[in-house]
C-alpha cells in the first residue's frame, strides 16, 4: 500500500571523530554524571502502608506510577529498580530518505540515560499508488514498556488508510476525520492485543504528520510535539496533552479520576495516549471520554513556498529546549551541515548536554524552501571551532601554570564563564561541547602524562 524511497540506515556512535569511545565516555562521565547523579544500582523500597522508605534515582517513582501503580501499593518491601543507567547509552540510530516531490528527511534516536529504549517511529516519505505525492511520519514515545509503541508504529498508518477518508481530492475535513478514526481504530484493535499479550498497563504518545500536495496535517496524542518553521520562525506547533490542562482535567474528573502532582491519579503524566487501558474502564463513557483519551488533536496547515522544515520529536527533546530555540538551532545547522542525519545527531547531543534523562528521538523533514549550505556560514563555523580550540588551549596552559589540575570539568567551568561570540543560535555553548571535548583531549595528549589529568 505504501513504499519508502531512498532510505539509508546506520548506527552512529556519538563520539567525536578525533576521540576514541573510551575517552569520550570518560568525558561524558565527568561532564554529565556530576550534574545527573542517577544510578541503576539505587533502588526504591516501599512498605505496605505507602510510606516511601528509601528513594534513589530521579524519576523512579514516575516509572512505577506509569506502570499503573501508586507508590505504596503492592506487597511489603517491594524493591523497584531505578529506570536510569549508570552511564547513558550513546549509540544513535540514524535514517535518511527523500520523496520525489522534493521532501528530504532524517531521523535520529538514542536511548540515553533510560534503562530501556521505548521510542519507535514510522517514516514513509512516499505513499504508494495514487498517493505517490503524500508522505507520513510519526514518533511514538512508549511508557511502561515498548510493546505498545512498537505495535502502533507498525499499524497506525494502515488503520488511517483503511478508513477511506484519504483521497486524491485532498478534502481537509475528510482527512481530519480519517486521522481521528484511524487513531481510535488503532486503540480498539490494540486493546484486544494488549489483553492477550499482557500490555494493559503500557501506552504510547504519538505525534504524526501527513503531508499532501496542498496541506500539512498534524495529529497529536500526548506530550510528544510537532513544529513547523517558515522563514526562520516557528509557524505552528502542537499543544502537549497534560492532565492539568483545563479541558483535559475536566474530562479526567468526569471519568472518575483526579489530577494530583500534575498527573492522573498522581501517576500518569499524559492525558491522551494509545493504550493505557487501566485508565479507560469508566462505564457508560465513550473511548474519547475516558481518563486517558486516544483521540488525537488534528490541525491542518496549508502548505506554502516559505515552508522550511518540520520537526516531530518526543518529550526527551522538548523537556530541554523551547520551540524557538530548536527552530533557530536547526535553521543555523542546515547552513553548515551537508547531512540531515548530522543535524539530528547534533540536536540529540544538545538535549543530552542540556540535561535530558529520557530517550531522545527526532524526525526532521526539509521542504524545498529549507536553508541551503552557505559558504559564509561554513567560514564562520570554522572560525568558531578555531576560537574554541584556542581558548581551551589557553585555559589548559593557565591551569597548568598555576599548578592546578587541568581536568575537563575545570576547563569547561572556565569556558562557560567566557564570552564567546558566534555560538549557534538556540544552542549556545552546549551545542559545541563535542568540539570542546575534542580540543581538551588534544591538549592532554600534547602535554603528556606528566600533567595531571583528572585521575585517569
Automatic annotation (TrEMBL):
GO CC term (a single one): cytosol
Membrane topology summary: Lipid-anchor
Region annotation Disordered: where it falls in the sequence: 59-79
Segments of skewed composition (Basic and acidic residues): 64-79
Catalytic activity: O-phospho-L-seryl-[protein] + H2O = L-seryl-[protein] + phosphate; O-phospho-L-threonyl-[protein] + H2O = L-threonyl-[protein] + phosphate
Keyword Phosphoprotein in annotation: yes
EC class name: hydrolase
EC number(s) given by UniProt: 3.1.3.16
Keywords: Cytoplasm, Hydrolase, Isopeptide bond, Lipoprotein, Magnesium, Manganese, Membrane, Metal-binding, Myristate, Phosphoprotein, Protein phosphatase, Ubl conjugation
Compartments where located: Cytoplasm, Cytosol; Membrane
Domain PPM-type phosphatase span(s) in chain numbering: 104-367
Pfam families cross-referenced by the UniProt entry: PP2C, PP2C_C
GO molecular function: magnesium ion binding; manganese ion binding; protein serine/threonine phosphatase activity
Top-rank taxon, per record: Eukaryota
Coiled-coil blocks: none
Swiss-Prot/TrEMBL cofactor(s): Mg(2+); Mn(2+)
Family that this chain belongs to: Belongs to the PP2C family.
Subunit-structure text: Monomer. Interacts with PAK6. Interacts with the phosphorylated form of IKBKB/IKKB.
Name recorded for this polypeptide: Protein phosphatase 1B
Source taxonomy: Eukaryota, Metazoa, Chordata, Craniata, Vertebrata
Amino acid at each position: 500500500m505504501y513504499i519508502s524511497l531512498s532510505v539509508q540506515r546506520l548506527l552512529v556512535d556519538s563520539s567525536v571523530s578525533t576521540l576514541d569511545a573510551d575517552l569520550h565516555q570518560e568525558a561524558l562521565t565527568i561532564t554529565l554524571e556530576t550534574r545527573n547523579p542517577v544510578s541503576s544500582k539505587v533502588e526504591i523500597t516501599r512498605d505496605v502502608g505507602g510510606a516511601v522508605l528509601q528513594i534513589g534515582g530521579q524519576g523512579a517513582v514516575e516509572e512505577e506510577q506509569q506502570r499503573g501503580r501508586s507508590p505504596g501499593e503492592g506487597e511489603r518491601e517491594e524493591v523497584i529498580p531505578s529506570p536510569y543507567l549508570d552511564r547513558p547509552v550513546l549509540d544513535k540510530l540514524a535514517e535518511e530518505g527523500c520523496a520525489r516531490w522534493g521532501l528530504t528527511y532524517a531521523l535520529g534516536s538514542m536511548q540515553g540515560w533510560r534503562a530501556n529504549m521505548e521510542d519507535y517511529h514510522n517514516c514513509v516519505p512516499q505513499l504508494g499508488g495514487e498517493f505517490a505525492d503524500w508522505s507520513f511520519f510519526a514518533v511514538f514515545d512508549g511508557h511502561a514498556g515498548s510493546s505498545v509503541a512498537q505495535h502502533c508504529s507498525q499499524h497506525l498508518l494502515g488503520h488511517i488508510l483503511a478508513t477511506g477518508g484519504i483521497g486524491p481530492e485532498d478534502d481537509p475535513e475528510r482527512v481530519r476525520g480519517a486521522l481521528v478514526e484511524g487513531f481510535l481504530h488503532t486503540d480498539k484493535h490494540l486493546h484486544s492485543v494488549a489483553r492477550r499479550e499482557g500490555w494493559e498497563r503500557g501506552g504510547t504518545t504519538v505525534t504524526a504528520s501527513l503531508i499532501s500536495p496542498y496541506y500539512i496535517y498534524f495529529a497529536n496524542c500526548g506530550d510528544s510535539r510537532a513544529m513547523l518553521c517558515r522563514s526562520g520562525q516557528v509557524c505552528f506547533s502542537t499543544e502537549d496533552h497534560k492532565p492539568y490542562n483545563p479541558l483535559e482535567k475536566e474530562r479526567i474528573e468526569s471519568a472518575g479520576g483526579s489530577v494530583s502532582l500534575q498527573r492522573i491519579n498522581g501517576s500518569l503524566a499524559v492525558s491522551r495516549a494509545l493504550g493505557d487501558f487501566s485508565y479507560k474502564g469508566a462505564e457508560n463513557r465513550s473511548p474519547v471520554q475516558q481518563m486517558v483519551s486516544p483521540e488525537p488533536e488534528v490541525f491542518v496547515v496549508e502548505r506554502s513556498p516559505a515552508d522550511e522544515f518540520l520537526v516531530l520529536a518526543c518529550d526527551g527533546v522538548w523537556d530541554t529546549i523551547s520551540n524557538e530555540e530548536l527552530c533557530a538551532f536547526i535553521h543555523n545547522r542546515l547552513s553548515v551541515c551537508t547531512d540531515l542525519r548530522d543535524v539530528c545527531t547534533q540536536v540529540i547531543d544538545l538535549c543530552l548536554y542540556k540535561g535530558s534523562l529520557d530517550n531522545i528521538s527526532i524526525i526532521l523533514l526539509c521542504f524545498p524552501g529549507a536553508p541551503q549550505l552557505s559558504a559564509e556560514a561554513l567560514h564562520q563555523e570554522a572560525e568558531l571551532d578555531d576560537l574554541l580550540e584556542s581558548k581551551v588551549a589557553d585555559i589548559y596552559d593557565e591551569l597548568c601554570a598555576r599548578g592546578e589540575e587541568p581536568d575537563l570539568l575545570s576547563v569547561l567551568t572556565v569556558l562557560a564563564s567566557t564570552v564567546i561570540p558566534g555560538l549557534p543560535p538556540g544552542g549556545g555553548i552546549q551545542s559545541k561541547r563535542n568540539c570542546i571535548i575534542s580540543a581538551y583531549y588534544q591538549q592532554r595528549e600534547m602535554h603528556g602524562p606528566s600533567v595531571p589529568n583528572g585521575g585517569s
